[in-house]
Amino acid sequence: MPKITYHTADGGQTEVDAPEGSTVMENAIKHMVPGIEAECGGACACATCHVYVDEAWASKTGEPEPMEEDMLDFAYDVKPTSRLSCQIKVTAELDGLVVHIPERQA
């Protein structure tokens, strides 16, 4: 099962086993990772699951689709590797994925 490491703004770290086909957001919620609110439940209708994909993983997670890009306009402190974690599907290729959670959500 792929592993995902979440780094919080306060220096905390949580590593989880993530089933393939799930999303980075679903796994954060399931494991109560602080800083991921996911108010819309993964419908890409808010920006409260915003993460920064570690630069080493940015090419493997891909670019945001137009709808996600629109929602990122509402996120706090958007950076080039910003993504909504509800839009990143877990695959075997993402084993070891590292994401960083912003100081706050939108």
Describe the secondary-structure layout.
Elements: E1 3-7, E2 13-17, H1 24-30, E3 50-53, H2 58-61, H3 66-72, E4 82-84, E5 97-100
Parallel strand pairs: 1-5
Antiparallel strand pairs: 1-2, 3-4, 3-5
Task: Give a brief outline of the structure.
This protein is α+β, with helices and mostly antiparallel strands. It is built from 3 helices and 5 strands, in the order ββαβααββ.
What are the salient characteristics of this protein?
106 residues, Ubiquitin-like (UB roll), five-stranded mixed sheet, 3 helices, 17% helix, 20% strand
Please, could you describe this protein's structure?
The chain is α+β, with helices and mostly antiparallel strands and 106 residues long. It has one domain: Beta-grasp domain (Ubiquitin-like (UB roll), Roll). Helix content is 17%, strand content 20%. The chain has 3 helices and 5 strands, in the order E-E-H-E-H-H-E-E. Strand 1 (3-7) and strand 2 form a beta hairpin. It starts with a strand and ends in a 6-residue tail after the last strand. The relative contact order is 0.30.
